[in-house]
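hiii so um. not sure if this is the right channel but i have a protein structure encoded as tokens and i wanna go backwards to a sequence. like what aa goes where. can anyone help
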């Protein structure tokens, strides 16, 4: 008979070669403002000699940065999440089947990019507990032309599903389309542009900008000189159903340097808005005297009901 210590070594060696932790990210790279969902799953294949005691998922900006725990699950199936109201967490720990822990974000931001680690604790009847880890790096990117085309196709599919693919819907005149989906503001002053306020609610910044481009314009670029005239026109129209009115400014790199979305030139503001991860776009707050505030580009409705403002040069 082998000494008991040798048996432990043999079991550990077998378990280490049999077990494999998979850490899967979908998508691999987050298109900020376009990706509608980001899912991270730590999967542990069934192991007939060692059983899963717990699964932990951690996140940091990079491999050398301090890690923050996102979620964990133990052998009883109890899930603890450290991301309240930000992401959904699910998973299970089973003896004769794969075990997993999944974190899912809706409308991910640049904050979800970075370095992830899954740490799994395994134990068995004849072996001491040990840990297996797996890591994965998730990138981020600004949407390019291909991404925009894909988004346009999604929007067309949405319109077709909502209104039906009828020829007259697609051949309606430009002016009819504007009057159906937008409200023209009466902006006084020296501006050489028309300003159209959307009737659609809760579009992302990218969806809003695409809609403005379909009109031949762009998300409104509000300078300090024009801000008073535009907000006065918005007050005349009234708040309507919206808490926020999205305009064309972005800090997608989280640097605190605000740029116009159309040409990435520096944007001047009447207020100071420092960098705030996940709050990378600008809007007028209709409930706070139309003050300019920061909101999420990919999920504006997280800060309230939103509309958007287009600018068309005349």
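sure thing!! here u go:
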């Amino acid at each position: 008979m082998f000494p008991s210590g040798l048996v432990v070594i043999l079991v550990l060696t077998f378990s280490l070669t049999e077990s494999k932790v998979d850490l899967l990210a979908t998508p691999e790279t987050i298109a900020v403002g376009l990706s509608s969902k980001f899912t991270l799953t730590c999967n542990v294949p069934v192991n007939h000699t060692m059983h899963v005691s717990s699964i932990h998922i951690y996140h940091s900006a990079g491999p050398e940065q301090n890690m923050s725990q996102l979620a964990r699950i133990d052998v009883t199936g109890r899930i603890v999440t450290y991301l309240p109201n930000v992401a959904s967490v699910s998973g299970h720990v089973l003896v004769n089947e794969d075990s997993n822990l999944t974190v899912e974000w809706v409308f991910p931001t640049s904050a979800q990019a970075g370095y992830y680690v899954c740490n799994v604790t395994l134990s068995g009847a004849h072996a001491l507990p040990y840990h297996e880890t797996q890591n994965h790096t998730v990138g981020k990117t600004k949407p390019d032309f291909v991404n925009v085309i894909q988004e346009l196709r999604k929007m067309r599919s949405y319109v077709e599903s909502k209104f039906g693919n009828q020829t007259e819907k697609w051949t309606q005149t430009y002016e009819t389309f504007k009057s159906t989906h937008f409200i023209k503001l009466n902006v006084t002053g020296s501006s050489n542009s028309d300003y159209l306020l959307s009737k659609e609610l809760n579009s992302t910044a990218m969806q809003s900008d695409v809609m403005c481009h379909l009109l031949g314009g762009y998300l409104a670029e509000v300078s300090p000189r024009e801000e008073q005239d535009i907000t006065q026109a918005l007050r005349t129209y009234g708040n309507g159903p919206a808490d926020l009115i999205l305009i064309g400014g972005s800090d997608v790199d989280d640097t605190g340097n605000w740029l116009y979305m159309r040409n990435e030139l520096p944007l001047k503001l009447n207020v100071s808005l420092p960098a705030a991860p996940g709050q990378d776009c600008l809007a007028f707050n209709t409930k706070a005297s139309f003050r300019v505030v920061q909101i999420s580009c990919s999920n504006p409705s997280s800060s309230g009901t939103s509309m958007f403002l287009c600018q068309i040069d005349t």
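oh and Residues 145-163 form the longest helix (19 residues).
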